[in-house]
Amino acid sequence: MAIKIIPCLDMKEGRVVKGVHFVDLRNAGDPIENAIFYQKEGADEIAMLDIAATVEARKTRLEWVKQVSNVIDIPLTVGGGISTLEDMEALFEAGATKISINTAAVRQPELIKEASKCFGKKRIVIAIDGRRNQGMPSGFEVVVSGGQKPVGKDAVEWAKECEALGAGEILPTSIDADGTVAGYDIPFTRSIAEAVSLPVIASGGAGKLEHFYEAVVKGKASALLAASVFHFRTFTIRQVKEYLKGKGIEVI
């Protein structure tokens, strides 16, 4: 299966931002300019996450979604503050191709089933933010509310539950690795990829070209999401694809 490369626009106050371990945010530019640039660069999809929506107890800003969806032709996955079918409908109308839910899915798992039935499985991405916790069977605990609240739920068991409820993709992000550019959390990604038959998107921590390769080969990811390395132009999407191709990995 061909591997997808997905730049991620973490949004706050109308700007793209990037932090480390979900905090210490830096400005990473304008979402529209970034989206246009990434499409030209060969991105297969774009993810746009309103990182403050849940924490600020509000909905995703629809105008940001409209502005970005208007300038790209590739799929756009939107997440942040989505808690009802009405929220999802509004985002699809604003131009989102898929929606990503995290906190709301943990709080009301039935929402996954309803959304899958209503909009189709392929449009429902479940984001799982995880943190190491040896008290959990898999060693990873689910954390919600923008990485602030551990919920006492095993991340791998939750991924399996999400698949059974009708999720179409799983997006696991390791809080321990996020923004560190020290590499994806391979044990976390692999433990989820091995537990489900859905596409798993590696996320959090890419810093070198080898990290992308490791996420596919060792982490068993079928898509690779990154932010810092693209926003701060460490290397381009094209470079990542060429590198993977040179390593014998099929890219789109």
Q: So what's the CATH class?
A: Alpha Beta
The level of helicity is 25-40%
Basic shape: globular
Gap between N and C termini, in Å? 9 Å
Counting DSSP E segments of at least 2 residues, the number of strands comes to: 12
Q: From the 3D coordinates, which CATH architecture would you assign?
A: Alpha-Beta Barrel
Which secondary-structure class do the elements indicate? alpha/beta
CATH homology-level superfamily? Aldolase class I
Low-confidence stretches are none
Query: Over all CA atoms, what is the radius of gyration?
Result: 16 Å
Question: Can you summarize the main beta sheet?
Answer: 12 strands, mixed
Average the pLDDT over all residues and give the rounded result: 91
Keyword list:
252 residues; alpha/beta; TIM Barrel; twelve-stranded mixed beta sheet
Summarize the structure in words:
The chain has 252 residues and is of the alpha/beta class. It has a single domain (4-246), classed as TIM Barrel (Alpha-Beta Barrel). Helices cover 35% and strands 26% of the residues. It is built from ten helices and twelve strands. The protein has helices at residues 31-41, 62-69, 85-94, 103-107, 110-119, 155-165, 186-195, 209-217, 228-231, 237-246, and strands at 4-12, 15-20, 23-27, 46-50, 76-79, 98-101, 124-132, 140-144, 149-154, 169-174, 201-202, 223-226. Strands 1, 2, 3, 4, 5, 6, 7, 8, 9, 10, 11 and 12 form a twelve-stranded mixed sheet that branches. The chain is globular and about 40 Å long. 49% of the residues are buried. The model has no long low-confidence stretch (mean pLDDT 91).
